[in-house]
Every structure is written in structure tokens, then in C-alpha cells.
Amino acid sequence: MYNSSGISIALIFITVGIGFKLSPAPSHQWTPDVYEGVRVANLILAPLQQWRPPDSSWFQLNVDGVVEVGSNSAATGGVLRNGNGDWVFEFARSIGKCSTILVELWVVLDGLKHAWRLGIHKVAILSDIHKALVSIEDASSDHIGSAIILDIREILSRN
């Protein structure tokens, strides 16, 4: 599709980032476990601690975005697992130029779209950008990513 070394490098970083976030040994020693989550309807938003399976009726979406310093080129990716820890799907894409908060909002939106297409509505989303997750719950529309937030909320209201 694209023969860009920048996209290839971004996808490598996303893959490594997701691997780190899933916390396989030995990186589980470095994974912070001091964050609290935010609950919105059938969605649990929480900065990643260490991967733990959700309740059996829930699915867990680990998401990450990366922004290249200097060019602001961004890419996203995520992994959805069921309550047993079984892999359901993964996704990645290039976003273009944007900020770290916007790239995290984009990856949440992408993950929810994929989950809803599969009929999966109970999703726990884990991200490392707590501010992006809190902005989804915040009723204010003054956020720079308010259009993306409205799209996320629209998906959540379908249930």
C-alpha cells in the first residue's frame, strides 16, 4: 500500500509499545500500577497497569498511538482480547499529523468501531494517556478533539 519507511517505523513502535503495555516478563516490572479508571456506560477507560483479563462478559482493548517528534506524523494500533485472554482482532493505521492526545482519541474511536462491527459492546479500553480517556467522559465540548469525542459518544449511545 504505502512504501514509506516512516510508516514502517511507526508500526514497529506501535507493535513494541503494545507489547510493552501487555507487560510480558520482564517488562511487567516497569509497568506502572498506580492509575485509576473512568467508567462510561458499557465502557471502562483505564490507563494501562498490567494486562489482566476482564470479567468473562467483557472484552479488553489495549490501544496506543505514536507521534513522531518533529514531523508530528502519527499512527495508531490496538489489540482486542476476550475475558479468557484470547486474541479477537488487532488493527493499526497511519493518522497523519496530530498531537498525542488526538492520536489516542483516534485509536479509541477505531477500536470501538471495530468492536461494534463485531457486535461487541462491553469493552474495557486501556490507554497510557489518561487525559484523553477523561476527556471522553467530560461533558465539555471545548476539547481540541471534540469531534472525535462526539463520534466515540455516538458509538456508545447505540447500545
Summarize the structure.
With 159 residues, the protein is α/β, with parallel strands linked by helices. Helix content is 35%, strand content 26%.
SSE order and pairing:
Layout: H1 5-22, E1 38-40, E2 43-47, E3 59-67, E4 73-81, E5 87-97, H2 100-117, E6 123-127, H3 130-137, H4 146-157
Parallel strand pairs: 2-6, 3-6
Antiparallel strand pairs: 1-2, 3-4, 4-5
Helix pairs in contact: 2-3, 2-4
Domain NADH:quinone oxidoreductase/Mrp antiporter transmembrane: 1-40
Signal peptide: 1-19
Domain RNase H type-1: 62-157
Tell me what you see in this structure.
Helices cover about 35% and strands about 25% of the residues. It has about 160 residues and is α/β, with parallel strands linked by helices. The chain has one domain (about 5-155): Ribonuclease H-like superfamily/Ribonuclease H (Nucleotidyltransferase, domain 5), CATH 3.30.420.10. It has a six-stranded mixed β-sheet, sandwiched between helices.
Through-space gap between termini: 35 Å
Biggest sheet overview:
6 strands, mixed
Per DSSP, the total helix count is 4
What's the order of the H and E elements?
Answer: HEEEEEHEHH
Beta-strand content bin: 25-35%
CATH architecture annotation name: 2-Layer Sandwich
**CATH level 1 class label:** Alpha Beta
Shape: globular
Number of domains: 1
Would you identify the CATH H-level superfamily? Answer: Ribonuclease H-like superfamily/Ribonuclease H
**Average pLDDT over all residues:** 76
Strand order of the largest sheet: 1-2-6-3-4-5
Keywords: NAD, Signal, Translocase
InterPro entries: ND/Mrp_TM, RNase_H-like, RNase_H-like_dom_plant, RNaseH-like_sf, RNaseH_domain, RNaseH_sf
Pfam family, one: Proton_antipo_M
Organism: Hibiscus sabdariffa
